[in-house]
Amino acid sequence: MKIRYGGDYNPEQWPKEVWEEDHRLFDEARIDTLTVGVFTWALTQPAPDVYDFTTLDRIVERAAAAGRGICLATGTGAHPAWMARAHPSVTRTDFEGRRHRFGQRHNSCPSSPEFRRLSAEMARRIARRYAGHPAIVAWHVGNEYGGACYCDLCAAGFRDWLRSRYGSLSALNAAWYTTFWSHTFTGWDEIEPPNALTEHWRGPDHTAFQGITLDYLRFMSDAMLANYCDEKAAVRESDPDTPVTTNFMGLYRPIDYHRWAPHLDFASWDNYPPDDRSPARMALAHDLTRGLKDGQPFWLMEQTPSVTACRDVNPLKRPGVMRLWSWQAVAHGADAVLFFQMRAGRGASEKYHGAVIGHAGRSDTRVFREISSLGTELERLGAATLGARTPARVALLFDWDSWWALEISDGPSRLVKYLDVVTTHHRALWQLGADVDVLPVTASLDAYDVVVAPALHMVKGDLASRLSAVAERGGTVLTTFLSGRVDEDDNAFLADVPGPLGPLFGVRVDEWDAREPDYVNPVTIGDETFASRLLFELVIPQGATVVGTYGADFYAGTAAVTRNDVGAGQAWYIGAGLDPGGVERVIREVLAGHGLLGPCAGLHDVETATRVAPDGTAFLFVLNHNPEPVVLPPLDGVDLLTGEPPGTLGPHGVLILTTEAAGR
């Protein structure tokens, strides 16, 4: 047993003699796991009543003969051309109201009965044929779900979803505040999907009625989840035991992964960061993915070995970065490190996407050498970290409803982005070496000393009381501007801001000031001053202690950051859009108060993360995201990869330390 290593393999694109060379190179690179069949629907079902598994049989048998594990896909990531021709309802209608024709991927209407029937039948037949095959280690349903639809079928599905949610039109009208602009609905069939032809202008985030748009985002996430569940149920008819998953996309706004999580046997995700300068953002996505299944290890289902091909600019991973980012995934909970793609395709939109094996099929490239070297390291590590969990005492709350509600709101600022606020606070925790569980707002908080809830725009259920309980028992809770503003229906609380969070944080906010990006209001905390931008709440302490004050405008000298003593603990409120340095200053004080600063907290872009194996062995990962070497502080243990004690960590270097290395 070891961390699974390999990735997406598409031999159906190649003649059989290429397969033999591929498997020889896979052996050389220590590749042990292949994801196959992701886009084979047109191959395995070339006509409505024709199923042909000849090629897929050969792919599965060749991989099995080489001793490799198989993550077998249902092949339904894009529907075939004949289906769109025979059943026009399977194609999506976009936000502008245009019915699409066949093309691209993410091209299926989730509410189409023909799509649901045919995709489930494809999964059923795949599972019936291959269930029980000893090489199959997981089932892969669909691929990177996404693509909203606004067709008449989705409109009907939305109305059914609303009936289930609200029960009556009177309850719906109250939730959506439809007395505004004469929008009261008197029949379910009057409700239209919110799009460019109805409630929206200037794009998907500009809506006259936030309630209907928020509910449509929820509905569409649920509609695609129903597609996944259709296929999983079809697989389960033949295979009740092999785990089933689908590959998420990390910090992906359109789908609420927390609503999906209970239906996955394990979580997996595809790591394609927006640039090559965002290690903390990747750590956030890893932590989020791990948190989907209550800390259970996840699979890194895809990453590029070298470059992507889907953006305007696609920077090459520098020497050592592929290895570093792979170990970062393991450090945060991955039990599989997989790539897209194993061999570079000759044509279409991904022909320049990085691959383990390039177009020339060479094994003497830098990329292949690095892949092989990492494969050797993973073999050397063996089963040591399998099943290991993160012993986090810090929780960061992440909420798709708050994300959606904040960014479809008219005011206070279109420039404040939920993910920007969250990543700034997570980055401070990351830089300071805290192990963090990223959790839904419904999760238990009993195990955490610190709970950080940035931009907690929507407060649902008993969350306010559960946050108060954290502080009462001696923990620390931290939130920010734009928190406690709306309820689950996206209606403002009839109370002082931050609504039900006010008593916990000991503040009220009567006014707020949203400004252009180049406007800066300095905030002084202790003897340090930091910039703040975009949003400035005028915070009035109601028992809280002022920690930071504004330095400009008519509210100069008033509270920008406060701390409130609650029971045995504290509640911090950051009312200004502090820059990363200011956020780190506050979070450093919070972590220090609980003894949670990491061993490398003073080193820029040196990451630490801890995992604890089922036998109690603790592993400290130390990752240098700098292109220069760093001198580490004194650390106990020896490096599992080299057997050497820690000292200077080279550019993009990795250490895995345990004091029990000899006994693993």
From TrEMBL:
Keyword Nucleotide-binding: no
CDD domains: A4_beta-galactosidase_middle_domain
Top-rank taxon: Bacteria
Enzyme class: hydrolase
Active-site residue list: E144 (proton donor), E302 (nucleophile)
Catalysed reactions, as listed in the record: Hydrolysis of terminal non-reducing beta-D-galactose residues in beta-D-galactosides
Domain Beta-galactosidase trimerisation: 392-596
Database matches in Pfam families: Glyco_hydro_42 (PF02449), Glyco_hydro_42C (PF08533), Glyco_hydro_42M (PF08532)
Domain Glycoside hydrolase family 42 N-terminal: 8-381
UniProt keywords, alphabetically: Glycosidase, Hydrolase, Metal-binding, Zinc
Record-listed E.C. numbers: 3.2.1.23
Positions of the Beta-galactosidase C-terminal domain: 605-657
Annotated positions binding substrate: R105, N143
Gene Ontology BP, a term: galactose metabolic process
Residues reported in the UniProt entry to bind Zn(2+): C109, C149, C151, C154
A molecular function GO annotation: beta-galactosidase activity
GO cellular component terms given for this protein: beta-galactosidase complex
InterPro entries documented for this protein: Beta_galactosidase_C (IPR013739), Beta_galactosidase_Trimer (IPR013738), Class_I_gatase-like (IPR029062), GH (IPR017853), Glyco_hydro_42 (IPR003476), Glyco_hydro_42_N (IPR013529), Glyco_hydro_b (IPR013780)
Protein family (similarity comment): Belongs to the glycosyl hydrolase 42 family.
PANTHER family the UniProt entry points to: BETA-GALACTOSIDASE GANA (PTHR36447)
Name assigned to this protein: Beta-galactosidase
Species name: Actinoplanes italicus
